[in-house]
Design brief:
Keywords: Membrane, Transmembrane, Transmembrane helix. By secondary structure, the chain is mainly α. The protein has 6 helices and 4 strands, in the order αββαββαααα.
């Protein structure tokens, strides 16, 4: 009977996250609700803009340049839609996974912090953040370059994307915290054995 509120809470959390992503995503539901696909070039261009709307707003001696180049295909096929979804889905999966794992961690820690289950759950969250923080940006970048390949010739660049370090660093910090908690569990067990 106690599992019913837990299952309900998980369903509410997952539904809320999905609805939030749908409502606040700039590309709709992983880019699948718009009638076109868009890919951004990794190259930086210095294209001068001669439109009066931009040149009139600039001070004397200032030139208006456009550096980002986006390609939009208004008649995409299924493969392009899948690639567009992969440009946002990995980060979403990492985020939802972290929320779920943190919820499980808090649920297990209600009986105390220095328990083997809590240390194990902290280690799982740390590994999830470390792996997800390293892999998700690479998968999204590879999907963007593959999508760009379907629309252009010689525009994509299949290299390693620069990784934002905050997520892997938090993962490493949680792995270190898990080791501290595991040591605390051992020390507590030793103290209880001697008393």
């Amino acid at each position: 009977m106690a599992r019913r509120p837990v299952v309900f809470a998980v369903l509410v959390l997952v539904t809320g996250v999905i609805i939030g992503m749908v409502l606040y995503s700039r590309a709709g539901f992983f880019g699948l609700t718009v009638p076109h696909v868009a890919a951004q070039s990794p190259s930086i261009y210095g294209i001068g803009i001669d439109e009066p709307a931009f040149t009139e707003g600039a001070r004397p001696g200032v030139v208006a340049l456009a550096s980002d180049l986006r390609f939009i295909d208004s008649s995409p096929d299924t493969g392009q839609y899948i690639l567009q979804a992969l440009t946002t889905f990995p980060s979403f999966a990492v985020t939802v996974g972290v929320f779920f794992l943190l919820w499980r961690l808090l649920w297990r820690a209600r009986a105390g912090v220095y328990l083997p289950q809590v240390a194990g759950q902290v280690r799982v969250v740390g590994w999830w953040l470390l792996a997800g923080g390293l892999l998700a940006p690479q998968i999204e970048y590879f999907a963007m370059m593959a999508l760009l390949d379907t629309m252009t010739v010689n525009e994509s660049y299949y290299g390693v994307k620069e990784i934002p370090l905050i997520v892997p660093l938090v993962g490493l910090g949680l792995l270190a915290l898990a080791n501290v908690l595991r040591t605390g569990v051992r020390m507590r067990d030793d103290l209880e054995g001697t008393v």
